[in-house]
What does this fold into?
Amino acid sequence: MMNNEQQPQMQVDLSQTTAEICEKCENDTFVQVYKMRKLSALLSPAGKPSIIPMPVFACAECNHINTTFLPKED
It folds into this structure.
């Protein structure tokens, strides 16, 4: 038996939000892109080097990635 329950949709009043804009050109539309990271074989659970894709958002106009969209690097 399959469970077809849907997640409840959150109702948000957009007038109570602020637009996220590009830090470089002030455009307000973004596209999803990927930053790629290499993991060495020594650190990989599989014992082989691997590539880790990390989704981020880039400005649809100038391709800039806002600092708030970047993952934290420790």
